[in-house]
Design goal:
This protein is mainly beta. It has two helices and 30 strands. It has two domains: 218 residues; 130 residues, Jelly Rolls, CATH 2.60.120.
Length: 382
């Protein structure tokens, strides 16, 4: 269990995430007034996302009990809590039918964050790639920074899962999400997250009704939310590093064969699809989704390259995780595990997928390529 740290009567802090944790502040920056506001910052506040509900708070005070922050504002009640090390939950409850069929959350974030809606999978993805997209990921948003690899890992900032409505009789209905942004100003951009609630459900519901992310609301993770097989297949993403030496490739994968399968990762030059180098093989992978490190020592140039994963054939399969994102992926099916194809002939170039794979490298001349921009957390708060 992850607990809030209470800074004062109106401000709560918590640190969540996997290999790239986020600092999260709930309640806003005013020590005398709690507002339904969430600020998420990663990489020393180089990238941030502030989420604010426009309910006007006057004299209302929050209740903080059992690690849950609750505040009642008119007919609405807001509840925010850390579910586990990777998830922050946010629930909005309605005593009666809301006047609007949508919930509007105001967004303020770094200009370099991009938002990618996750549509239903195609039949090709389901049947050929054996892809799986959980229900709460359909119509959700994956949020990515403009940087990746080394300390930025995949570049994923967070995941905004789809919301579901539940009424007093435990009937449920899915919502839809839409993100709209204004023109960026001064390195920041403002926008709105609309949670579109089905009006026919609101009309017939037994109140109170609550709306929240289905299972998860805000996922603080570097990994994709969908997965597909790389059994006998090669899949990965294109990145452009600095010249230097690749020392490790990490992939977020799961082995459904109970540890009997083997996989490896490698690099391809994007300009002519020739093979640059390979990592060591790893056997005995976790059946639960996890980051797996593949060590290597590969000289790389400052040019676009595909960072890819590759697994053998056997009982069960190895799945790699991904998010839908236009033009990010490379994939070849039935490659025949063993020797890397050189050059490779991609079946999908590009594939509209951002695979959960990244490369650690040192820059020629020494030192990790880790640009850092320092800011103060509270400057982003509502």
């Amino acid at each position: 269990m992850v607990d809030f740290i209470q800074r004062n009567e109106t401000t709560l802090d918590v640190r969540l995430g996997d290999r790239a944790p986020a600092d999260i502040r709930v309640g806003g920056s005013d020590p005398d007034r709690f507002v339904p506001n969430i600020n998420i910052a990663k990489w020393s506040d180089e990238y941030f996302l502030n989420i604010n509900h426009p309910d006007i708070v006057t004299a209302e005070r929050p209740t903080i009990r059992d690690n849950v922050a609750d505040i009642k504002i008119g007919d609405n009640a807001h509840s925010i809590w850390p579910l586990n090390q990777k998830v922050l939950e946010y629930k909005i409850s309605f005593d009666r039918r809301p006047l609007s069929n949508s919930i509007r959350l105001e967004l303020l974030c770094s200009e370099g964050l991009s938002y990618h809606k996750q549509p239903p999978l195609s039949q090709y993805d389901i049947e050929i790639c054996e892809a799986v997209r959980p229900d709460n990921v359909v119509n959700s948003y994956a949020v990515y920074a403009a940087k990746a690899n080394n300390k930025y890992l995949t570049g994923k900032f967070c995941h905004i899962y789809n919301w579901v409505l539940t009424d007093a009789r435990c009937r449920t209905a899915w919502c839809d999400l839409e993100v709209v942004f204004d023109r960026p100003v001064g390195g920041r951009k403002t926008g709105r997250l609309y949670i579109l609630m089905p009006p026919e459900f609101l009309d017939r519901a037994a109140y109170p009704v609550y709306a929240m992310g289905a299972g998860d609301t805000f996922g603080i993770t570097s990994a994709g939310a969908s997965n597909e097989s790389i059994e006998d297949d090669i899949a990965g993403c294109v990145a452009t590093p600095s010249a230097g030496t690749a020392t490790n490739i990490s992939a977020y994968i799961a082995d459904t064969s109970n540890g009997s399968r083997t996989g490896k990762c490698g690099l391809y030059k994007d300009s002519d699809d020739t093979h640059i180098g390979s990592t060591s093989e790893v056997t005995g992978l976790s059946s639960s989704p996890a980051w797996v490190d593949f060590s290597c020592n590969i000289a790389i140039a400052a040019e676009a390259m595909a960072i890819v994963a590759y697994s053998d054939v056997g009982g069960g399969k190895i799945n790699i995780y991904f998010d839908t994102q236009n033009g990010e992926g490379r994939r070849v099916e039935n490659a025949g595990y063993g020797t890397w194809p050189d050059p490779v002939s991609w079946d999908h170039d590009p594939a509209d997928k951002r695979y959960s794979i990244h490369c650690d490298y040192t820059v020629a001349g020494g030192g990790l390529s880790i640009p850092v921009a320092m800011h103060h957390l509270t400057k982003n708060l509502g």
